[in-house]
Amino acid sequence: MKKQINIKNIINEPQAFYDLQNRYQRITSVLGGSIAVGQSINSDMDLIEITRKGLPKSVIQTLSAILSISMEKMSQLLHVSHRTLQRKSDTDLLNVYPTEQILEIADVISKGVEVLGSIDMFTKWLHTEIRHLDYKQPIDYLDTTFGVALIKDTLGRIEHGVYS
């Protein structure tokens, strides 16, 4: 039997985020906590299960707040029309592709906060033009899997002291 831990929302309790022991707990926190996600995340198998099942629309609002972007910009990152998101209730589940992109973005946020030290520092960095990214903002790359990989690589470079 899996041990259930109630993971808190990073926005409501940012200090609790820094005490989390692993990547999966941090992703859960970024998504709004275990209650918002609807289950605990303990492995890549759980991520696959959640992707197939879908995340509730409410997690989009949580990510939007963390990233300091509008729901309209969030819909662009997820390749879902803004109107479609407006029609969904907070508990409606998203399909596979937006859910997968949300999980990728949550992983980037988790890594970014870990590398840069705080939500505020990460958010500021996300909206800064970066030389390594051809003077574009990292936020503009979070709409594709390849863009997410590029941002994770850039964060890894920063973590290891490579000029970015």
Structure report:
The protein has 164 residues and is an all-alpha fold. The chain has one domain. 58% of the residues lie in helices and 0% in strands. The chain has 10 helices and no strands. The N and C termini lie far apart (44 Å).
Any chance you could write out the topology, listing elements then pairs?
Blueprint: H1 14-18, H2 23-30, H3 34-37, H4 44-53, H5 58-67, H6 71-78, H7 82-87, H8 96-116, H9 119-126, H10 145-159
Helix pairs in contact: 2-8, 4-8, 5-8, 8-9, 8-10
Give, in order, the helices and strands. Answer: HHHHHHHHHH
Residue windows where pLDDT falls under 50 for at least 5 positions? none
Helix- and strand-based class? mainly alpha
Shape: globular
Residue share in β-strands: under 5%
| Helical percentage | 55-70%
Please describe the biggest sheet, giving its number of strands, its sense, and whether it closes into a barrel: none
Tally of domains: 1
The tally of beta strands, per DSSP, is: 0
Distance between the termini: 44 Å
Please state the average pLDDT score.
90
Query: Count of helices?
Result: 10
The Rg value, from CA coordinates, equals 15 Å
From the structure above, extract its key features.
164 residues; globular; mainly alpha; 10 helices; single chain
Summary, kept brief:
The chain is an all-alpha fold and 164 residues long.
